[in-house]
Amino acid sequence: MKLRSPGVTVGVVGGGQLGRMLGEAGSPLGIELLVSDPTPECPASLVARDQVVGAFDDEETIYELGERADYLTFEIELADPDVLEAVEEETGTPVHPRPETLRMIQDKLVQKERLSEAGIPVPAYEAVDSAAELREALDDLGYPAMLKAREGGYDGRGNVLVESPEDVETAFEAIQGPAMVEEFVDYDRELAVIGCKGDGETDTFPVTETIHREEILRETVSPARTDGQTRERAREVATEILDVMAGRGVYGIELFERADGEILLNEIAPRPHNSGHWTIEGCHTSQFEQHLRAVTGLPLGATDRREPTALANILGDVDTRQDAELSGVEDVLRTDTVSLHWYGKREVYNLRKMGHITSVGSEPDSVLSLVREVRDWLTFRE
């Protein structure tokens, strides 16, 4: 590739915070972004060359992306793989990761089946299409168990914990559609690996510990606070998963670590992921730069961690939807080793991801304590 201006253009379906950070990462490489999003002046629009306003699965919108871009990718699983395939065929613009990968990952049951067939360790699961089938499946899996919508769930949405037979009817009604039920994994900690597939090369970022409450990611710390053997096993599982994925790009791979050190797959995202945001300050190459390198066929960058790094998400702490005005920013910016990332969303509501802070230091527990303390200085309340 020769650098020129205007540069290579990547069309991105989705213009939220992931698209915004892709745009920030692409600029130094001479890669320009064209994003599509249904929200006018979406967060990524301020760092992209242009925005096409349209639904994530709208064929006319995606066709315009394909016509104007050199490569197509997506930062949200609501993109339509059939539309992406049709646009690629009609415009000749390559799509990465491949639409068939998106199609497989969009359905959690299909995802589990495909990976289980490939020998990836996954929790025990069953497909259920009615409350009666759920009750029957739980006779085998036992209580508690996790009921999941097969499509569309994220940040805990579409997941319902079934603790006893009395919960079966209401749990299935809450999902409102095709579902699968998984054994409840009694894990020691949750881990994540950002995997990378380039043009004939693969790599992984360092294993990260992810800390959730109410099924929403609150903090990450890398290296994960577990033993080296377990981290290596997590990396091995992630590498095996990459062999199943079709298409270039980065993949957010979420894992469970059991008390005995066994690693099980939780879920996969075929895109940059919240568990990898720490790489912006913490690694030689960020997950966002890596994704753009991979999609455009450039050599992958080094994934080495600079130093232990922790991240804390800035979540909405208000009861009602309102204009987003964050207080406490000055105190954060006065704090050495802390970096602030603002996603540019116009409105805030309870638990909405609005930004994050990271800190790089010499010891995982200390940087994690710091980002937690600093994050608590921030509020959207008046």
From TrEMBL:
Species assigned in the record: Halovenus carboxidivorans
Superkingdom, natural source: Archaea
Keywords: ATP-binding, Ligase, Magnesium, Nucleotide-binding, Purine biosynthesis
SUBUNIT field: Homodimer.
Matches recorded under InterPro entries: ATP-grasp, ATP-grasp_carboxylate-amine, ATP_grasp_subdomain_1, PreATP-grasp_dom_sf, PurK, PurK_C, PurT/PurK_preATP-grasp, Rudment_hybrid_motif
Pfam families linked: ATP-grasp, PurK_C, RS_preATP-grasp-like
Lineage per the UniProt record: Archaea, Methanobacteriati, Methanobacteriota, Stenosarchaea group, Halobacteria
Keyword ATP-binding on entry: yes
Gene: purK
GO function term, MF aspect, one: ATP binding
Protein name in UniProt: N5-carboxyaminoimidazole ribonucleotide synthase
